Structures are given as structure tokens and as C-alpha cells.
């Protein structure tokens, strides 16, 4: 696939500053990096962002993630590879990514499941990271950023 243009964030240096602040904020709340990586990969799979799926999987592998868990992210409900907290985060990521799929995009039961496992600041980081991932996915899909180029 040929990119339509260079990544817009790279072309607008002021944007990079804001993106870096979002990244830092989401990663500073004490939430496990593996949880952030899981929701990033799952949202990117849903959105069909090949660049983020590729970079996310590579990052997870570099962080020591097992192949079993890495290969099962898309089918997380059907495996026993994920903790209850990770399952709640993955379900929240799916709901927040697929906002138009139901009248109540993030039903109370999904939010409450996540709230059982994460503190308020961790939930804030999780929501921020899911939104940031969707932001990246939309930029990359719109400009056709190819996998392996990040």
C-alpha cells in the first residue's frame, strides 16, 4: 500500500507536542503497560489500522508478551489467556471504539466491570489511551499509512 502523504503529525511539529503529552498522561497513571498495549492492539484491529496493529504487536512482543496472548487478542472472549481486569479493559476498548454500534455506546455494565478493576485515575488513563488509539487509527487509515513504516 502506498501512503497518501507522510503522517500528518510528522508534518505538523506542534501536533507532535500534543500527542506526546497525551501519551505521557495515559502512561503515567500506574496502569500496566501490557493493559494499555492490549487495548491499543484491539482497537486498532477493529479499525483496520495496519500500521497500529503492526507496531502494537511488535511493541507487545518486545515487552515480552507471549505469542498465545498476542495471537488471541482478536478472540479474547474465547480464551483463558487474559485476566478479568484485562477482559474488562478489552471490553471497554471495544465499546468505546464501536460507538455507533448500539444506542448506549458504553453501557453501565461495561463501565462497572472496568471500575471494579481500575482506580479512577487508571480508568481515566484507559479512556484517554483508547481515545488516543482511535485518533491514531483514524489518521493512519485516512492517509493509508502502511504497516512497518512507523
From TrEMBL:
InterPro entries the UniProt entry points to: AhpD-like, AhpD_core, CMD-like
Keyword list, A-Z: Oxidoreductase, Peroxidase
GO molecular-function terms, A-Z: peroxiredoxin activity
Domain Carboxymuconolactone decarboxylase-like: 13-95
Pfam families in the cross-refs: CMD
NCBIfam families registered for this protein in UniProt: ahpD_dom (TIGR00778)
Protein name: AhpD family alkylhydroperoxidase
